[in-house]
Specification:
Bound molecules: 2'-deoxyguanosine-5'-triphosphate, calcium ion, zinc ion
Number of domains: 4
Shape: globular
Largest sheet: 7 strands, parallel
Radius of gyration: 26 Å
Number of strands: 17
Number of helices: 25
Strand order of the largest sheet: 11-12-13-14-15-16-17
CATH superfamily of the largest domain: Metal-dependent hydrolases
Structural class: alpha/beta
Distance between the termini: 60 Å
């Protein structure tokens, strides 16, 4: 890792602290440290590796920041930055890279105009709301406008997994269809394969004897606006959306090693290389080598085996302890999509969904589910909510449909708002008649952490609330979580036997890190899609991705159980 990169990340921390109104002394400390690192003549990464050297000897670097830098060099991520990024909209980082915009202005736009991304800023410029803030002369506005136009593509923000998948599929299909059928294997590596919630760029690995043909075809993909770099076996292009795509073409004998290398994460790979070194081996994108002899590389399994490790699922490759488990043959059996027997949140045109009840049921049946919950909204949801009478009418219809149906059971349910006051939007009497109730917050998101936490606790206290849906309220990429004491909520949910939902829509809520934290408190989960049309029922794969990144197994997730067990596992079964 270069000094410039370390300095940039330290600078990010200063900016993020400033945007979130952090301690000004801490802001200054990070800025000073960034300057020290940027100006230092030797690679800081080497100083970190040198155990004799004490980073705090450098000007402006105290104990805390020294520890941060050490963690960064060793794991590839800066803990402070990770923490801060989790609490602010990720799009704000892109705004900071626009010429003329520093943390003060980004904070102002965010606080006053709810500008959270480059796209929001463009809208605000177009609507003239920035000029109205005062302090922005025509020259400065023009500079910002230019930055948005020119910089937006270059400062391409990370895209949500859902969107990345559409590009990935299109490119893979396109490459497969050409190259004279000479492609032996093709797969997407990088953060996409690790199923991270957002993707910086796509990394595609192809095994093919005729590399030039693949490289040539790749550069002609319809959506390519720029070939950024090209070689005999590699190419990097930019698509019209600004998304970058890296391609590597390798020999079949190296495909496993290339997939392993380009899947990363960098922190995981660094650890693997250390293991290889300790065994007097060399590991790179071409294989595992003893001297100049390649001892494995065709498959990933062989690469891990050569290092004395079990194959590690990509979602776990973040250097969070998975390598030690692989060494001891103790990796967990992560939940798979095939394990999921029901989808527990979806909407019909009775609220804000696009499809009818029967269309949703038919689509769910074709996915092979044993049960689904129809969770249209409660009255509080403006425009979309159903009154108690309408809910009862829908349930009556569901009873009727269930009678004529085999294989699939439709559960009578509702997505009930937890009101601003903390009260539930529907009376217990009605809730008791449901098969399953998911409670969620949609309004009053600007309340304090205390208020929002208390609202969730009130729902968790109710014997008729089976699950809390999209618990943090975040929506990718631009709406962050509402303020929340998540540990308190997770502990209460575990204690009460209330499920927490992992929502596979673009909310991706719970996020993977919180799902992992919740598991450690003994929480049980339910996975759902929150589908608003039949296509979105397929979003279960994203909920599963989050669950796998959180190291969840089928045992942690109630809707991996057959229907009778699922119903018995709901807390309401104890009240009957
Ligand atoms: P992203 O694209 O920001 O969402 O994250 P990744 O993990 O896909 O990162 P990317 O695209 O820069 O590189 C893909 C993988 O390739 C990365 O996870 C590890 C490996 N890799 C690429 N360049 C390097 C490098 O310079 N050093 C090491 N150790 N690994 C690298
Ligand atoms: Ca990538
Ligand atoms: Ca890349
Ligand atoms: Zn909702």
């Amino acid at each position: 890792m270069q000094n410039a990169e370390i300095a940039r990340l330290l600078g990010d921390v200063a900016d993020l602290l400033e945007i979130s109104a952090g301690n000004p002394f801490k802001v200054r400390a990070y800025r000073n440290a960034a300057r020290t690192v940027a100006d230092h003549p030797d690679p800081i990464a080497e100083l970190v590796a040198d155990r004799e050297f004490d980073l705090t000897e450098l000007p402006g670097i105290g104990d805390g920041i020294a520890k941060e830098i050490t963690a960064l060099v060793q794991t590839g991520t800066l803990p402070q930055r990770q923490q801060l990024v989790a609490t602010i909209p990720p799009g704000l980082l892109d705004l900071l890279r626009i010429p003329g915009l520093g943390p003060k202005r980004v904070k102002l736009f965010h606080d006053r105009l709810q500008v959270n991304s480059v796209a929001d800023l463009k809208d605000a410029l177009d609507q003239g709301t920035i000029a109205k803030l005062g302090g922005f002369g025509p020259k400065l506005l023009e500079k910002i406008r230019e930055g948005v136009a020119g910089g937006a593509a270059a400062a391409q923000s990370r895209i949500v997994l859902h969107e990345a998948e559409q590009y990935a599929r299109a490119i893979v299909e396109y490459l497969k269809a050409g190259a004279g059928g000479g492609i032996d294997a093709i797969d997407v590596a990088g953060s996409f394969r690790r199923r991270k919630e957002t993707i910086g760029d796509l990394d595609i690995v192809v095994s093919c004897a005729n590399a030039p043909a693949v490289i040539e075809r790749f550069s002609k993909f319809g959506d390519v606006t720029q070939v950024a770099s090209q070689g005999d076996t590699r190419s990097t292009v930019r698509l019209s959306s600004g998304l970058q795509v890296d391609l590597r073409v390798v020999e079949p004998s190296c495909f496993g090693a290339a997939m392993q290398y380009f899947t990363g994460s960098q922190a995981h790979n660094i650890e693997l290389r250390k293991i290889a070194q300790a065994k007097k081996l060399k590991l790179n994108e071409y294989g595992v080598f003893r001297g100049s002899k390649c001892i494995s590389g065709r498959t990933e399994e062989e690469v891990y085996a050569a290092l004395g490790l079990d194959w590690i699922p990509p979602e776990m490759r973040e250097n969070r302890g998975e390598i030690a488990l692989a060494k001891q043959h103790k990796l967990p059996t992560l939940v798979r999509l095939e394990d999921i027997r029901g989808d527990l949140q979806m909407h019909t045109d009775a609220s804000d969904g696009k499809a009818t009840l029967t269309e949703m049921i038919e689509a769910a049946r074709s996915l092979g589910y044993a049960y689904i919950a129809i969770t249209d909204h409660s009255p509080r949801t403006s425009m979309a909510g159903q009154s108690p009478a309408e809910i009862r009418a829908q349930w009556k219809e569901i009873d009727r449909l269930n009678k004529g149906m085999r294989g699939l059971r439709v559960l009578k349910s509702v997505e009930m708002d937890i009101l601003e006051s903390g009260k539930l939007d529907l009376p217990d009497k009605l809730l008791a008649e449901a098969d399953y109730v998911v409670a969620t917050i949609h309004y009053g998101l600007k309340q304090t952490e205390r208020q929002l936490t208390d609202r969730l606790l009130r729902a968790i206290e109710s014997p008729w609330v089976d699950a809390v849906g999209h618990p943090t309220g975040r929506i990718m990429p631009s709406r962050p979580s509402y303020p929340l004491d998540f540990d308190v909520v997770a502990k209460a949910a575990a204690q009460a036997g209330c499920l927490l939902e992992i929502n596979g829509s673009e909310r991706l809520d719970l996020p993977d890190t919180l799902a992992a934290a919740a598991k450690s408190h003994g929480v049980r989960f339910v996975l759902s899609t929150d589908a608003h049309n039949t296509r979105e029922l397929g979003f279960m794969r994203f909920a599963v991705a989050v669950a796998r990144r959180a190291w969840l197994t089928a045992v942690d997730i109630l809707n991996t159980r057959p229907l009778p067990e699922f119903l018995k596992g709901l807390r309401r079964s104890r009240n009957r």
